[in-house]
Amino acid sequence: IQMALPIELGKKRFYRQEVAKAEIAKTELEINKLIWETHIKVHPYYTSVVVLGDLLVLAQDRKDFYEKLYNIAKARFEAGDASKLDFNRSYLEVLASDNYVNEVEAKLSQARINLNQLLGLSPKQQIVLDVKPEDLNPTGVLSSKAEMQTYLDQALNKRIEIGILEKDYGIKRAQLKQSQ
Question: Which of 70, 64, 52, 73 shows the shortest CA–CA distance to 98?
Fold first, then answer.
């Protein structure tokens, strides 16, 4: 029976392991960097799609409201209870709200196209989530991490120290003025 063991002089093996660990850590950092870069690119487009979608709902509600007011103004005008000016104003509001709905729809369509282009999808393809938007909560808070809490504590301590120094400076300055 023969047994072979690699013989390495000094700490050569230890240093090779440290280099390998460093390369792994570097690769993990590069992966995290790519994830954050992707997040930074996608987030504004996704946010604009969501916000414009909500804005479109509000604009359509506004348009429905002005259409009801127009119908009321029309009935009052035909009954002789309101002037033609009020009737025309309500009609102008309906047209303005309809124009705003069309504007928001165009912006939403452009935002969807931009998001799809960034994600590599066809422009007309819809993104469907399997979960409700309410369920898409962050899994963790950045300040809950121990390292971040340490940095926050240090920053708070520095701010307190600066506040104390500024107060002491103000007191000394006031004392100098009084002595003069």
Answer: 64
- 117-174 confidence digits (pLDDT tens): 887 777 777 766 565 655 555 555 555 666 666 766 766 666 666 666 667 767 777 7
User: What is the Cα–Cα distance from 180 to 178, expressed in whole angstroms?
Assistant: 5
Give the three-state DSSP class for 95: helix
User: What backbone phi and psi angles, to 5 degrees, belong to 176?
Assistant: -65, -40
Under a CB-based contact definition with an 8 Å cutoff, are residues 126 and 115 in contact?
Answer: no
E strands, the chain, are none
Task: Find where tokens 């309809």 sit.
Answer: 98
CB 115 within 8 A of CB 46: yes
C-alpha of 32 from chain center: 19
pTM over 0.85: no
CB atoms inside a 10 Å sphere around CB 104: 19
CB contact set of 84 (below 8 Å; sequence gap of 6+): 77
